[in-house]
């Protein structure tokens, strides 16, 4: 397994090895001992799977507050996404900055998004499937978000004609400067 730092060192790109032959491939997408050897110690408690039919489906930017704050490990089983993590830790020197990484079934990369970051993605291919592990259970009472189009963050989302497909909830999230729930 290959572990790489991003522009924000707390966010990591993780690329598992693929072993292929005429039948297809096999891959260990998560192995606790490899993570611990890399100095990463997480206990994942829930796996999530999302399917997005149209290109330009934007999900995010989401996070949960304590005591249900979540570390996330995101990967793509089918299709491609631009995956984004925004630092919302107020005391961080990278507060308000973001990392954007293309994840795909082809490049087999995963993104580790730690607690203290808002997370979201936009689909780049039709019929995209995203899987992610989290370290805390979903809690509707602790579910929060950040406006995907906040100019102070400046994510360069690859927009389809007519703009992204958003949930009603994702259309209403506050800007970073108005975010009461940013992490200390």
UniProtKB/TrEMBL annotation:
The record marks 138 as: Participates in a stacking interaction with the thymidine ring of dTDP-4-oxo-6-deoxyglucose. This is dTDP-4-dehydrorhamnose 3,5-epimerase. SUPFAM superfamilies: RmlC-like cupins. It catalyses: dTDP-4-dehydro-6-deoxy-alpha-D-glucose = dTDP-4-dehydro-beta-L-rhamnose. GO terms for biological process: dTDP-rhamnose biosynthetic process; polysaccharide biosynthetic process. It comes from Methylocystis parvus. The active site is at 62 (proton acceptor), 132 (proton donor). InterPro entries: RmlC-like (IPR000888), RmlC-like_jellyroll (IPR014710), RmlC_Cupin_sf (IPR011051). Its EC number is 5.1.3.13. The keyword Disulfide bond does not apply. Homodimer. The keyword Isomerase applies. Pathway: Carbohydrate biosynthesis; dTDP-L-rhamnose biosynthesis. The gene is rfbC. Catalyzes the epimerization of the C3' and C5'positions of dTDP-6-deoxy-D-xylo-4-hexulose, forming dTDP-6-deoxy-L-lyxo-4-hexulose. The lineage of its organism: Bacteria, Pseudomonadati, Pseudomonadota, Alphaproteobacteria, Hyphomicrobiales. Belongs to the dTDP-4-dehydrorhamnose 3,5-epimerase family. One of its GO terms (cellular component) is cytosol.
């Amino acid at each position: 397994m290959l572990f790489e730092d991003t522009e924000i060192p707390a966010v990591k790109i993780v690329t598992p090895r693929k072993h292929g032959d005429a039948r297809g491939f096999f891959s260990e997408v998560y192995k606790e001992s490899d993570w611990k050897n890399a100095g990463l110690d997480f206990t994942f408690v829930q796996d999530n799977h999302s399917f997005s039919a149209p290109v330009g489906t934007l999900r995010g930017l989401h996070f949960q507050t304590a005591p249900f704050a979540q570390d996330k490990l995101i990967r793509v089983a089918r299709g491609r996404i631009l995956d984004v993590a925004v630092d919302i830790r107020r005391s961080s020197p990278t507060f308000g900055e973001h990392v954007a990484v293309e994840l795909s079934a082809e490049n087999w990369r995963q993104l580790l998004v730690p607690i203290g970051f808002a997370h979201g993605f936009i689909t780049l291919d039709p019929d995209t499937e995203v899987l992610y592990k989290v370290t805390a259970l979903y809690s509707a009472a602790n579910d929060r978000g950040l406006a995907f189009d906040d100019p102070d963050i400046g994510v360069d989302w690859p927009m389809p004609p007519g703009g992204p497909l958003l949930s009603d909830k994702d259309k209403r999230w506050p800007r970073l400067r108005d975010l009461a729930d940013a992490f200390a």
